[in-house]
User: Fold these one by one.
Assistant:
Number 1:
Amino acid sequence: MNAASSWISRNVARLRPAAGDKAAAAPASPPERNTHERLQATLRRAGEALPPRALRRLLDDLQAVAAERVSEVEAGRHAQAVADWYAQAKPEERRDLWLLICEQFVPDAAQVKAAQQRYEQAAGTEEAPQAEAHLRRALLSGRTRLLQRFAVFPEGLRFLVNLRAELLPRLRGDKRLVPLDAELGQLFSTWFDVAFLELRRLSWDSPASLLEKLIKYEAVHDIKSWADLKNRLDSDRRCYGFFHPRMPDEPLIFVEVALVGEISSSITPLLDETAAPADLKRATTAIFYSISSTQPGLRGVSFGDSLIKHVAETLTGEFPRLRTFATLSPIPGFRAWLAKHGAERIDRMGDKERAELGRALPEAPAEPQIADVLAAADQALELAPKSPVAQFLLRAAACYLGRELDKSGRPLDPVARFHLGNGARVERLNWAGDPSAKGMKQSFGLMVNYLYDTKRLDRHRTLLAQGRIPVSAEVEGLARQP
């Protein structure tokens, strides 16, 4: 090879990417265009759902819904047409609608800035109320009016609830959609306020379509058959739900209640289809054994507290002998928490207790390991409540429910967070309370009673706000032990 050829070969080689540098050599995909850029474009880029012309047409339809000059009735008809389009649209085409709502219906930034400056300058003066009202009007976006118009047509509220349910899983990966979620959440907190909801009893005589929804939405203890459902609606049972007038055939949340003589320790007799109904004349205790929310799109809208309160008042009116209101609840986060923190708990045990735990395990290891304890706990139904393994689990569960808080200062367990936030207290742990496969998977069969003492609900909420979980003396005693 002559000198010229050698020089050409060396320089061509420099221009070629290295074998392991193929990713770097690949052309970078252009950043995703916002709707402002796409509306001004002529051609659709790869990865975009709607072409610019269709996007402009969809924006025109949305603007017709939000237009101030049209009546509510006419706007509702435009909204119905958009909802009909949405029902036929592909997922990414629906996302384009979400993005249009987020990016094209925003408050005027200049007006907001001016109103904010006026509000700050007016603080402490006679003009402060007017300045605040002016700022509120400036912050009101066209998005608010647009979404309110969607609620006009008969199925509009249901449409928005379902839209948010579809939107929520996309938020983590697409922050551009956050404004739409925030706006819907704020509107729903008003539209679904308990003052606008109706408490209705669901019975075996309710329409079949409604009973089918109980089966569909039951989230705690699966309803396995119509016979199972009939048992849950028997004479010694009650089922109540909250309904919205615009969604009359859709329970937003419902609770199943058993009327019994004492606080229940096991779900098995409550779900036993062959058991005779309890004597209502002797019922002193209402056990809330299942509470199910039905609408993912209403996440963050809390009416569980009001539901329990209203049901308790309704039951007391029907059964004056009722004195105790409690739950029989799962502990869904316990297994995962114990797998993570169980070794620390073993290390904190005294020598005697650790030795007893070790002897109770298969092959009796010299030093018990959490993996061995968890394996033994999987056979919890074969263990006596006083066995070392059972006692270890009960003490750990008492600590988990009675001491553990998340970074926001809320109870770590999601079910505990709900009931304790409503003013209940952790009353009692129940060994082998749920022997089902689901119960074993969540908490080795353990269940918990939360007690709703109507005279202490506010006190319990105050304690929780101070970072102290309200518990009974029995649970506190278990939690103190390592």
Note: The longest helix spans residues 72-88.
Number 2:
Amino acid sequence: MSREINNKIINLNDTHLEIPSIFKIYMNNLDEPCGIKNKSSIFVYANKAYLELLNLPKGYSVTGRLDSELPAPTSEYASMFQAHDRLVEKTGKRRSSLEIHPFGRDQQLKAYFFDKTPFPDASGKTVGTFFHGRKAEHLSLRLYTTGDKAESLLLTFPSNLFSETEWMIIFYLRSHLCRKEIAMKLNRSEGYIKNLIAMIYDKAGVTNTRMLIDFIREKGWHRYVPEQLLTHHHRILP
């Protein structure tokens, strides 16, 4: 049995991943949302806390379904979640996002950090992703959203093309800061920032900031936000 999505064929039989019993017990006892998806982003398992977070109907099972099929506000962000899953599988490392959506019974806008890590089989081969959500207790949502607009933001590097400092500079360039302002933010000289920007342009194959922003968006990297900035009053721009 298969289903076509995003011009790709998804095998639904992959939902029968072997999950150790002790791990299921661990997840069931967690009061934080978590679950497992296969390499096609189809749910294999989700605990009660996750079902409650999405305010799914009583008795509803996510197993065998895609995010886009769930009766929840997050369904419209399915393509972003899939891209996040593929990034985890490709890098083999934890990748985190900041999810701001209507959550819970009250369906009010709330913020959760979601960490995703590779889920291996008995031989160590990655066969899916494990996700775990934790409430962002100290975020002021007005600093990261516009009104009641939901967001899905990536907190870990979407690519190793740029260094940590270069990603920070790219974020500030996308936030319309000039070289002098960026230099002040990073406690560096304006000349140093100018040289790094030139290196960024060279890596991206562009010649100006407008082209760089277009390049980042085309790659789907525009959702990246440096995690260390979340403790400061920086507004997340669309």
Note: Helices lie at 21-29, 48-53, 78-91, 164-174, 179-186, 190-204, 209-218.
